[in-house]
Write a structure and sequence with these properties.
By secondary structure, the chain is mainly alpha-helical. The protein is 49% helix and 11% strand. It has 8 helices and 3 strands, in the order H-H-H-H-H-E-E-E-H-H-H.
Length: 205
């Protein structure tokens, strides 16, 4: 069964003024959909992966994927998985809550000292990612850490479970923020759904 495009779950303009409607429309309907379609096309050359959960395909640096399609699966499967998570942890402005909750909040405080110190480390990961990529809060074992990955690489490829992820590809912000990536990152905190992040943290393995 082919991988499907995950619905956004809210109107394109629901994240205004922090993320603009046109960016969300293009980001979801063009970029994300292309990753899903290209991933499905790549799997035609390895039918035994059809229907296998995407996180299993990406695990251990795409270990179960044939070499001839590994780059296509890494880029497009990673892009599909990363974006599905990105939509999941976004919430319409003003309805999210400003800080983490529950056990995730405890883990962040224990690891980083405070939410403010975590934010600083996370923002640095996003600002200093050269070119295209992502900033992540991941859970690995019993620990949480901040990492960044290039292109559409997923933390799953490194054995980590992504709790929240921030897309710092230019397509995620350029229409509104142009080259001001730090402004986009600062605005993004306003639309993080910490309840969903806590749920993800709780089911991380």
């Amino acid at each position: 069964m082919a991988l499907e495009v995950k619905p956004l779950g809210f109107p394109f303009d629901a994240l205004e003024p922090h993320i603009d409607a046109k960016t969300m429309e293009i980001h979801h309907g063009k970029h994300y959909a292309t990753y899903v379609n290209n991933y499905n096309d790549a799997l035609k050359k390895q039918p035994d992966l059809d229907g296998k959960p995407l996180h299993d395909v990406l695990a251990k640096d795409c270990a179960i994927v044939k070499e001839e399609i590994k780059t296509a699966v890494r880029n497009n499967g990673g892009g599909a998985h990363n974006h599905a998570l990105f939509w999941e942890i976004l919430n319409p402005a003003g309805k999210s809550g400003a800080e983490p909750v529950g056990r995730l909040a405890d883990a962040i405080k224990s690891t980083f000292g405070s939410f403010a110190q975590f934010k600083e480390k996370f923002e640095t990961a996003g600002k200093t990612r050269f070119g295209s990529g992502w900033a992540w809060l991941v859970k690995k074992g019993d620990q949480v850490e901040v990492i960044s990955t290039p292109n559409q690489d997923s933390p799953l490829m490194q054995g980590s479970f992504p709790v929240i992820g921030l897309d710092v590809w230019e397509h995620a912000y350029y229409l509104k923020y142009q080259n001001r990536r730090p402004d986009y990152i600062s605005a993004w905190w306003n639309v993080v759904n910490w309840k969903v992040a806590e749920d993800r943290f709780g089911r991380a393995k």
